[in-house]
Amino acid sequence: MGQIVVEKDLDGIKGLCLITPAVHGDSRGYFMETFSQRDMEEAGFDITFVQDNQSMSTKGVLRGLHFQKQYPQTKLVRVIKGEVFDVAVDLRKDSATYGHWHGELLTEENKKQFLIPRGFAHGFLVLSDIAEFCYKCDDFYHPNDEGGMAWNDPAIGIVWPRLQGSYNGTASAEGYSIDDTPLNLSEKDQKWLGIKDTFKF
Fold first, then answer.
1. Is the pLDDT of residue 148 over 90?
2. What is the pLDDT of residue 201?
3. Is 141 one of the catalytic residues?
4. What pLDDT, on the 0 to 100 scale, is given for residue 96?
5. How far is Cα 22 from Cα 191, in angstroms, rounded to an integer?
6. Burial 139-169 (b: 16+ CB within 10 A, else e)
7. Cα–Cα distance for residue pair 158/121, rounded to 1 Å
8. DSSP designation for 89
9. Active-site residue, from 102, 122, 135, 176
10. 32-56 pLDDT, tens per residue?
11. What pLDDT sits at residue 128?
12. Which member of 66, 71, 122, 141 is catalytic?
């Protein structure tokens, strides 16, 4: 593990990990390994990633909370430009931390990577003018397999940084803003229900 430092089981949520790579820099710039299968195996991870994704979003965009219904994915996420607050919510019904959340500030400066195992919902809020977001997945994308739940569900209680606004009983972005920039969600993400209505065991 010479090139990474791993913090495991963040906030007591089993499987959630923060990975900080070694960055080698001088006045000319820097170099780092963004992924090493060897280092991951030495850290105790047995994951085979099969797909890399990249997205760009503007300030105030909130994506999530998303999960895969039949084809769950482990994700290794990072930010290569800008700043986002990235969140994972434990949806494993037999987990002692079911419904608990953890958030990490991911930036182009800190270069941290958030490892989110299968069985979690995922979302992020863009805090900078522009953010470019990259993530590795251990299963391929399957159309029509995405599920979701409300990003502002009080039963989960995610504290989104710098966000202003009041919960009105729905996942609507109306009335919310960040630094005077209106919160921006997809139409679909504004229609998700809370965790109790999404999962009725």
1. yes
2. 60
3. no
4. 97
5. 41
6. beeeeeeeebbbbbbeebebebeebebeeee
7. 12
8. E
9. 135
10. 999 999 999 999 999 999 999 999 9
11. 98
12. 66
